[in-house]
Q: What sequence folds into this?
């Protein structure tokens, strides 16, 4: 099929959950998808606003793409759940990108808000499709295909994060290799997807963890029921879907099934700052959590060495605990 | 039972009035001080917004003074204010403090009623019929006191840049507010208000001045409480600028009761409409209004805008990014002050002095 043009997708924020869907959708409509390069080794961060690192990365990646593409895809994700919302910064993200790129590139920024319509995602993509000259039938077909693709992609997620090099996580055509060595420790890594899987944010901490012999588990594999079972008895509903997912999955993992839990958070992330305090205090008040728990706060100044040192210490704690419990039993 | 509530500007005056008039025992937390802030900071995460730390500090101090029931306003998404109670409850519990918590819901729904039901049931046992019967009158008293405080503050904002003796207005405002605070009935309240107004009016003024016009926009807590913003409003006034702001208790209460009709509503709508050139969606809290108000004020011929926000405030961070562009596009100087627990009173003074001086130069050049 003839190529209609190029669509740029910044490698930031919800890219780390929905990229397969986005890619298939646009390719089905005959557009070429270009993903930004990332910061690279000597990459420079663009400080347009004083926000958290993932948000700064969105701007940096968008600037990287602005001359290479016809359209920039920065959806306005307000809500991905019937009752819960996303971080308020997501609502203004396309506007910030528009100001930063100074109108040099057209931005596709249709709103996704699942509180208003259940099929808001589909509607938003149909609108985007229309802007790209596709009619409703084509759009629907492309979206269905994309959705199915995402479903299959997510099924193989745990194998991907454990076997592929992290910079190839979202290179969809790369086949997943066979498991090479035994990893004795099962460790849950919890956080926003863009903290967990963006190597510019976390300095590739998942690779370090893997080489230390940890098998990685993420909240992506948990079902809605498992999460809501943990948060339904709170005195107030946590209304950010990501925050709710983090609290729910942390409590889930801390109640058993893994050897340790690592919480990755960005400095200045409002949601994490508040909920982190809540989690720590609640664990103290309720007691009972004997699983090692590590909180790592990341920003553009954190270095890989420092993170690795802490991870190594954490590994020792987990192994100690494991050998102790073996003696007891 | 001893009720307590957080500090926010002049809120203690009318919260106290409500408790006092209906005969409910209460404890006003000590005025927000360095110690309050230290307590709040000690018991929270560094990136939680400043209002959280200060409110927490207020509660800790009040509970240590013997209060046992906390009354706190609730809020909804998307800002963090809506989850303050969830987190603060756990922190206070972890500190080993005993208390009961009553959230005043921002909107009455069945869910909020149900969540409050348990607490209210307990409280009811301790309230006498007299308390309950007096409550409507107490609410009215509180409302009137709030309006009186706001009227006095607005007047002071007008008088301050024209005062001959620097600091005179502030002294008189304090006196007038304590007059309002001491009033016990609606009639004495009215007298106190009139006396206070006269007191402010009598300040020696130089009417030949034409003060700079500056609008204060931003997150409501930092805009409304002089202890948090280190008296930005007073400092600007004493530097010779007439200050306006649209964040008042009455505006926010009326808005959440959906009773904002007429001028008030149209003003907010006007700001919101103006922000649409930059923001395609309602980001939440005061973000869009901060952006919109800066644009509207520029059109109205204001000299400058001061934008206040707590460190790491989620909606206002977006606003501050956009405001830098607004300032360029509309040719209006905008000073963003990010506030946290650091002792920056001296720095704020210097920044404001430089800002005002710059505005005066700009005015001369025009």
A:
């Amino acid at each position: 099929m003839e190529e209609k043009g190029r669509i740029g997708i910044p490698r930031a924020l919800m890219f780390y959950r929905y990229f397969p869907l986005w890619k298939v959708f646009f390719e089905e409509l005959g557009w070429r998808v270009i993903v930004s390069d990332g910061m690279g080794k000597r990459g420079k961060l663009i400080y347009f606003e004083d926000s958290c690192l993932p948000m700064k990365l969105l701007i940096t990646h968008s600037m990287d793409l602005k001359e290479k593409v016809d359209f920039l895809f920065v959806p306005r994700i307000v809500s991905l759940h019937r009752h819960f919302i996303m971080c308020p910064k997501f609502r203004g993200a396309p506007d910030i990108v528009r100001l930063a790129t100074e109108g040099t590139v057209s931005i596709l920024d249709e709103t996704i808000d699942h509180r208003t319509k259940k099929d808001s995602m589909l509607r938003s993509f149909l609108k985007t499709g229309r802007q790209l000259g596709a009619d409703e039938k084509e759009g629907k077909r492309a979206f269905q295909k994309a959705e199915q693709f995402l479903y299959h992609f997510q099924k193989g997620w745990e194998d991907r994060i454990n076997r592929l090099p992290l910079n190839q996580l979202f290179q969809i055509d790369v086949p997943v290799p066979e498991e090479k060595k035994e990893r004795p420790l099962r460790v849950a890594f919890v956080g926003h997807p863009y903290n967990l899987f963006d190597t510019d944010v976390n300095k590739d901490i998942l690779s370090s963890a893997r080489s230390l012999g940890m098998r990685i588990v993420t909240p992506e594999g948990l079902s809605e029921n498992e999460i809501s079972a943990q948060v339904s008895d709170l005195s107030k509903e946590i209304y950010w879907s990501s925050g709710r997912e983090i609290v729910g999955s942390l409590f889930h993992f801390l109640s058993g099934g893994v050897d340790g839990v690592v919480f990755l958070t960005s400095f200045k992330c409002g949601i994490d700052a508040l909920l982190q305090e809540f989690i720590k205090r609640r664990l103290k008040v309720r007691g009972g959590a004997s699983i090692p728990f590590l909180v790592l706060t990341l920003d553009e100044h954190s270095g890989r060495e420092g993170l690795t040192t802490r991870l190594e210490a954490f590994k020792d704690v987990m192994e100690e605990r494991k050998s102790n419990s073996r003696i007891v039993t | 039972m001893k009720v307590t509530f957080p500090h926010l500007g002049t809120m203690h005056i009318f919260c106290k009035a409500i408790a006092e008039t209906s005969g409910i025992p209460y404890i006003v937390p000590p005025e927000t001080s360095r110690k309050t802030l230290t307590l709040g900071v000690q018991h929270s995460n560094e990136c939680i917004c400043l209002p959280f730390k200060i409110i927490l500090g207020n509660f800790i101090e009040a509970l240590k003074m013997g209060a046992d029931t906390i009354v706190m306003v609730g809020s909804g998404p998307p800002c963090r204010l809506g989850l303050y109670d969830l987190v603060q409850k756990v922190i206070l519990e972890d500190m080993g403090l005993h208390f009961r918590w009553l959230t005043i819901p921002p909107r009455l729904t069945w869910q909020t009623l149900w969540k409050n039901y348990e607490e209210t049931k307990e409280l009811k046992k301790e309230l006498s019929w007299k308390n309950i019967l007096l409550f409507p009158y107490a609410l009215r008293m509180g409302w009137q006191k709030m309006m009186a405080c706001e009227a006095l503050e607005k007047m002071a904002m007008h008088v301050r840049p024209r005062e001959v003796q620097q600091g005179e207005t502030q002294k008189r405002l304090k006196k007038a507010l304590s007059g309002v605070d001491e009033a016990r009935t609606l009639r004495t309240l009215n007298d106190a208000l009139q006396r206070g107004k006269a007191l402010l009016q009598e300040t020696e003024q130089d009417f030949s001045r034409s003060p700079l016009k500056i609008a204060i926009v931003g997150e409501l807590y930092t805009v409304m409480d002089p202890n948090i913003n280190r008296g930005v409003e007073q400092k600007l006034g004493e530097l010779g600028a007439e200050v306006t702001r649209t964040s008042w208790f009455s505006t926010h209460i009326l808005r959440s009761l959906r009773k904002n009709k007429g001028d008030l509503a149209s003003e907010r709508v006007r700001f919101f409409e103006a922000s649409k050139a930059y923001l395609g969606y309602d980001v939440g809290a005061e973000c869009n209004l901060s952006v919109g108000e800066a644009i509207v004020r520029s059109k109205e011929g204001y000299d400058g805008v001061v934008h206040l926000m707590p460190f790491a405030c989620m909606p206002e961070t977006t606003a501050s990014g956009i405001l830098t562009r607004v300032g360029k596009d509309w040719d209006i100087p905008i000073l963003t002050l990010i506030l946290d627990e650091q002792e920056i009173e001296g720095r704020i003074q210097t920044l404001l002095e430089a800002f005002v001086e710059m505005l005066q130069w700009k005015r001369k050049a025009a």
Notes: The first helix of chain A runs from residue 15 to 28. Chain A is about 50% helix and 15% strand. The CA atoms of residues 172 and 210 of chain A lie 21 Å apart.
